[in-house]
Amino acid sequence: MEILANVMLGFQVALQPANLFFCFMGVLIGTLVGVLPGLGPVAAMSLLLPTTFHLSPVSAIIMLSGIYYGAMYGGSTTSILVNIPGEAASVITCLDGYQMARKGRAGAALGIAAFGSFIAGTLSIVGLMLLAPLLAEVALKFGPPEYFSLMLLGLVIVTFLAGSSMPKALLMAAFGLFLGLIGMDIMTATPRFTFGMYFLMDGVGLVPVVMGLFGVSEVLLNVESKLERQIFVTKIKGLLPNRKDWRDSAWPIIRGSVIGFFLGILPGGGAVISSFVSYGVEKKLSRHPEKFGSGVIEGVAGPESANNAAAGGAFIPLLTLGIPANAVMAMLLGALTIYGMQPGPMLIKQHPDLFWGVVTSMYIGNIMLLVLNLPLIGIWVKILKIPYEVLFPLILLFCLIGVFSLNNNVGEIGLMLFFGGVGYFLKKFNYEAAPLVLAMVLGPMMENALRQSLIMANGSAAIFFTRPISLGVALLVLALLILPMLPWVKKKREVIAEIIE
Amino acid sequence: MKNNDQRSSLFWLVIGLAIALYSRKYGLGTFSTPGPGFLPFVSGAAMALLALVVFFQQFPKSQGETLKSLWAHTKWPTVLMVMGSLVLYAVFLRLLGFLLDTFVLTAFLLRVMEPLSWKKVLAGATGATLGSYAIFELWLEAQLPAGFLGF
Fold first, then answer.
1. Are B106 and A397 an interchain contact pair (Cβ–Cβ within 8 Å)?
2. Is B97 near chain A, with CB under 8 Å?
3. Domain assignment of residue B86, yes or no
4. Closest-CA residue to B137 (of A145, A218, A223, A404)
5. B12 and B30: one domain?
6. Interface of A with B in 241-280 (CB under 8 A)
């Protein structure tokens, strides 16, 4: 049993005291940012990225991953107690979770969210263990044309799944692609669009852009609106769901896990979308769909499981193909490259300690989250009560120092502030930042793949359509671009967009 | 111009065209051997094209929200003050040094939204400055700049 040996290796890595510590730090920070509205995992990871340069790559990735799935846990707490989702993926949890809290069942809601997340997280890790090595084997056969088509497909899926307007999302992707190409061209050593700014030679830094788009802009929107937060003051008692709760939640948790895992693999907001799909499925299958929205436990168990499973599934494209599925994975890709590792089909073979160590650490992290979350909910509630006037200067301060300490360069602070402004206007005018970030990361990779493909084919673009896998992917891209124009698909998408609103 | 999607799409149209035109300077190459300007040109052209799609998609709708409506009921002066203070922070970081610059910024930010008492502001700013100094300079050895005063 090769897989058993690999899992053993993973545990050996993950159980080293240093890695245990960083796993703990990751899930703790992740839960914290999940609890705090207006600070998501992407911003938190980019904030902490510079601090990981002193660590070993394995410890760093363990911690950064912990932030991601930890945030999925934390997000549910605010949805249930405050009716404000700490995380986009927990939006739907507000519907029934908050109603449960109002009925005095906050404990059971928080409990089932934690247990459901744990079970789903575990299941998706098993899926990841089984699927990723297989997929990596297949991916070894991919050449530059396949990679190019796949990356294009990734971008198109992201925009297809994006909230309301696909042209606007595609526009953002095109802009992101351009941003990714700024800097020195590898083939010809031509500096592109640098305008004499030396720090742009290496390309536009991912961290300043992400911190600007997801950190600074979020703060700007919050200070102008000043969210009114009313915490539901209630004694939280009995975090353990009772037997009836378990009976009602068992299938939603399992269905949510499966939905989340497979949607998580797809590029785009896997965690967000899977939580909506799970809610929809449970409502459809329920014998009492009319009760959804009035505080039924299935409405919490399903989506909360789905978003955690999706967090696991999202690792697959990154670890097997080297293609990030969402902005968080783009951050991880950036981190891996900084540590000198090339994510792709060879990653599992070349760095088994990294892959198996990180995957098993996720398992350990899930246990930590369960242990951490149930008794610490009181503390999270207290943190929620910190007024925003006090909180936002600290968030901004951390962004400023974090970006500066990357290269000790004030120019990068300027870059972050610029993108903070850009992000502010994008949100005002209803453009999504996620396709932009993804395209920016993929930009240089796509350019490389394109050039290599054309060299392979002596300059004939037909290579993208003569190789079967590449052709299949290309047809899929075309279908996704045309589909939204068909009337009935358009209608469906509008309905979904309305629900998400 | 009828709504904000149309207004923003015109902005992107200009940006896209500018990128596409400027890319030609770097050499587009041929389709078989793309030059450094090729993909930037394609992305700029795609932006311009998509901006047009967004613009004309909006035509059936006769009216939409105005620019003003986006900032109605908001405290936009606060946004300007916060953004301005951050820019000034970056400009003066090297000159004033990390400690002084950070202290001034946090004190300002703590006052800007809902004025806290000066006592709390001073205590908060001192705490945040020293705390972040301890984390980044002492623990993570980030080499934060010392200013003209030598700290």
1. yes
2. no
3. yes
4. A404
5. yes
6. none
